[in-house]
């Protein structure tokens, strides 16, 4: 069993571990103090350490959001996101989304600073989730009562296990089936709008080095294949994968070659906000239906 021995390891574990999003605890919640104690036991630390670490991360993401909002173009894009009173914007994803310093937390804080009334943002990201895991949590997604769902999945579908990294979690064909099912559920059963995001790219050299002696790993080309699949499923997706290419790439991915750095998460937040500001995904249009947004406007105006 791995042991967390350094402050850096403990902080990283707390950063990505959201006990309240574990499926069992989603369905049978426990008090916050107990969740804090669980994290303390897992990190071989005191509850006070966990609380102070969580508070520091919250303060850091608030400061990051304020810095982003100080940029006039970013602020204008936030103000232009087509959110209306009563909206519940829900994010589904893995550790990239669950990250307490991540893109969705930045979006949440930025929207709060813009102070629109009656809009909730709910982070259902869960570290380790594959597209198949999310299908198992459809009841949790439904219980969040979303009007708009943002989905960034696929990184863990390409995760390989075993000493030789020989066993992949989810095949590409299965990923396509699962994403298609999720799209159908969100736009059909929940009558919500939907925006897909491609997963970040990987840095193969860093992946090979970081996971060399660990029975888990990734192949950067497989992450790109999932991104291509999502582009094919939804040409209007937010293409995070492609946006992270170029000269700044080295500074956007962490030492493991998979997770974004804090700056990488800021980059993703900028890309997402820019895309959301120009288009709310009218996910049922073209499928013989109407979007949740159009249906809401029609109901309110009688048109």
Task: Show the helix and strand layout.
Blueprint: H1 7-16, H2 23-27, H3 32-42, H4 47-69, H5 72-80, E1 88-93, H6 95-98, H7 103-114, E2 120-123, H8 131-136, H9 138-143, E3 148-152, E4 160-161, E5 167-168, H10 172-189, E6 193-197, H11 204-210, E7 216-217, H12 220-233, H13 240-243, H14 249-252, H15 262-278, H16 292-301
Parallel strand pairs: 1-2, 1-3, 3-6
Antiparallel strand pairs: 4-5, 4-7
Please provide a written account of the structure.
This protein is α/β, with parallel strands linked by helices and 303 residues long. The protein is built from 16 helices and seven strands. It has a four-stranded parallel beta sheet, with helices on both faces. A hairpin with a 5-residue loop joins strand 4 and strand 5. Helix 3 packs across helix 4 and helix 7 crosses helix 15. The C terminus is likely disordered.
Write a brief caption for the model:
Helices cover 53% and strands 9% of the residues. By secondary structure, it is of the alpha/beta class. It has a four-stranded parallel sheet, sandwiched between helices.
């Amino acid at each position: 069993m791995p042991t967390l021995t350094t402050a850096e390891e403990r902080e990283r574990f707390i950063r990505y571990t959201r006990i309240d999003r574990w499926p069992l605890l989603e369905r049978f919640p426990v008090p916050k103090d107990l969740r804090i104690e669980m994290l303390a036991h897992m990190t071989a630390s005191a509850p006070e350490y966990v609380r102070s670490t969580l508070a520091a991360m919250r303060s850091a993401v608030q400061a990051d959001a304020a810095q982003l909002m100080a940029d006039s173009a970013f602020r204008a894009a936030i103000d232009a996101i087509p959110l209306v009173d009563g909206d519940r914007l829900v994010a589904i994803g893995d550790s990239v989304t669950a990250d307490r310093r991540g893109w969705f937390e930045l979006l949440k804080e930025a929207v709060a600073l813009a102070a629109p009334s009656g809009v909730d943002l709910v982070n259902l990201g869960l570290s380790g989730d594959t597209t198949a895991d999310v299908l198992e949590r459809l009841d949790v997604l439904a219980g969040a009562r979303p009007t708009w769902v943002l989905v960034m999945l696929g990184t863990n579908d390409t995760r390989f296990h075993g000493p030789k990294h020989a066993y992949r979690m989810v095949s590409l064909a299965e990923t396509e089936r699962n994403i298609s099912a999720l799209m159908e559920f969100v736009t059909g059963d929940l009558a919500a709008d939907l925006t897909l995001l491609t997963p970040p790219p990987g840095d193969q050299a860093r992946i090979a080095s970081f996971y060399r002696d660990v029975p888990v790993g990734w192949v950067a080309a497989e992450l790109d294949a999932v991104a291509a699949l999502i582009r094919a499923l939804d040409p209007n997706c937010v293409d995070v994968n492609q946006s992270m290419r170029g000269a700044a790439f080295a500074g956007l991915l962490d030492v493991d070659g998979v997770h974004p750095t804090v700056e990488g998460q800021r980059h993703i937040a900028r890309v997402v906000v820019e895309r959301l500001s120009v288009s709310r995904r009218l996910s049922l249009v073209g499928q013989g239906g109407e979007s949740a947004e159009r249906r809401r406007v029609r109901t309110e105006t009688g048109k």
